[in-house]
Amino acid sequence: MALKSVITGGAGFIGSNLTDHLVRIGHKVVVLDNFVSGKKSNLSHHKKKDVKIIKIDISKSKNLYKYFKGADYVFHLAALAEIIPSIKNPKKYFNNNVIGTLKVVEAANKVKIKKLIYAASSSCYGTPKKLPTSEKDEINLKNPYAVTKFIGEEIIMNYAEMFKMPNISFRFFNVYGPRLNASGQYGAVISNFLFQKKNNKPLTIVGDGKQTRDFIHVDDLANAFLKILKSKYNNKIYNLGSGKKTSINYIASIFNGKKKFISIRPGEPKDSLANISKLKKDINWKPKISIEKGIKNLLRN
Ligand code: UDP
Questions:
Q1: Residue 262, class by beta-carbon neighbours within 10 Å (0-12 exposed, 13-18 middle, 19+ buried)?
Q2: 145 an active-site residue?
Q3: I need a labelling partner for 241 at 20 to 30 A (CA). Which of 18, 143, 225, 269 fits?
Q4: CATH number of residue 84's parent domain
Q5: Pocket of ligand 1 (CB under 6 A)
């Protein structure tokens, strides 16, 4: 029998790319999504027999359990994911992200799954004192988004401990790739640049553009997911990034467009870089897609 995977937030950027990878290796996928940021079109290339789509708000659901029956793997990616809106409306973020996670982990614990993977966030490091930052370094929660994602991770790890649930938490760094959410007021840098380049507008560089981030291509991220599924590791937290730092000016140079410098975003770290040795060692994985190649592929489509 085919393996069954449930993906919360499966119609979003990361979820839909993960769906592609799981279908490719023969899984039957159940997508749970409230379609606030997720899109039907992200999954429209799949056949109904491979991907079942359910419109549901996990944080408000009463009987989530029924969708988890027979599941081998659960990927909990659904969340509200923007920092500034989380400062404007913390309660909404707590309800969605914390209560949502509690409901998912409860439902998953009722069916005996092989592994649950939680999408945590590198925002838990705040303004990191040490670069590259390892999983053992200081937690520094600077906004409600970071708080809710970190509480979610604590819930996942607590269930792993209490109920011997086979749970993994991945702290995502800056993930990019096809279907990255369309640019907007708080858009991710690569989606903004892509939109600007295609519409012949100047690239909006925040501050002096010398700040750096750790960009990981969604296909490299998905491959780490697939490798951890097969591994013996459970009850662990891993950074998930490329381990390479790239400045915003360098990203702009790959896009090769006109530039416009805009005012800084208060509270954001100057640099962010993952120490990924723990994950590399445990699952024999390494990121393969360079930032140059990843962006060129995006520009081609
Ligand atoms: N950024 C930028 N121009 C944009 C959007 C973002 O220069 O149009 C910068 C932003 O200030 C930050 C970096 O790019 O320093 C990454 O921002 P993003 O929102 O993609 O991710 P973050 O690391 O802030 O979560």
A1: exposed
A2: yes
A3: 143
A4: 3.40.50.720
A5: 174, 188-189, 192, 204-206, 211, 213, 248, 265, 268
Contacts of 175 (CB under 8 A, 6+ apart): 13, 14, 215, 216, 217, 218, 221
pLDDT of residue 78: 98
Q: Which of 73, 118, 145, 159 is catalytic?
A: 145
pLDDT in tens, 162-216: 999 999 999 999 999 999 987 667 789 999 999 999 999 999 999 999 999 999 9
Read off the pLDDT of each residue in 67-90 and give the average, rounded to a whole number. Answer: 96
**Is residue 267 included in any domain, yes or no?**
no
Q: Which domain holds residue 53?
A: 4-176+216-242+274-288
Q: Is residue 74 included in any domain, yes or no?
A: yes
Our measurement of the distance from residue 65's CA atom to the centroid of its chain's CA atoms, rounded to an integer in Å, reads 23
For 106, what's the count of Cα atoms within 13 Å in the CB-facing half-sphere?
14
Nearest to 120 by CA among 165, 173, 159, 162: 173
Residue 20 lies in a domain: yes
Pocket test for ligand 1, best of 268, 271, 295, 298 (most atoms within 8 A of CB): 268
Is 293 among the domain residues? no
Tens digit of pLDDT for each residue in 145-154? Answer: 999 999 999 9
Number of domains in the chain: 1
| Rounded Cα distance, 224 and 284, in Å | 9
